[in-house]
Write a structure and sequence with these properties.
Layout (H helix, E strand, L loop, with lengths): L3 H12 L3 H8 L3 H9 L6 H10 L4 H6 L7 H27 L1
Length: 99
């Protein structure tokens, strides 16, 4: 049995997010999210990817509770890209604060 919502709720709790906030961030109604959870319905792929992105995890983890270890080169690339994203966010915030 897939524990998508058990895994999702666990990550949400770890990130300090409640269902209302996750629904807002995902651009879905609170009732939709609550219905998915109550009916143990796995969302469409694009919705699952969006939830995983918000929760800073993978769809694989939400579905299985585990993740395959990335090959070293892929991990280095992912780490580099994450650093670039964070640097751009910091830069944009600095620009916005200067205005």
């Amino acid at each position: 049995m897939v524990d998508f919502w058990t895994n999702t709720l666990s990550v949400m709790n770890g990130r300090g997010l409640d269902q209302d906030r996750l629904a807002d961030l995902a651009g879905i109604s609170k009732n939709t999210l609550a219905g998915w959870i109550a009916k143990n319905r796995i969302p469409r792929a694009d919705e699952a990817f969006r939830l995983a992105e918000i929760l800073e995890t993978s769809v694989e983890f939400l579905l299985t509770g585990t993740e395959k270890e990335r090959p070293r080169k892929a991990q280095l690339i992912a780490d580099f890209l994450e650093k670039q994203i964070q640097d751009r966010k910091t830069f944009m915030k600095t620009l916005m604060d200067a205005e």
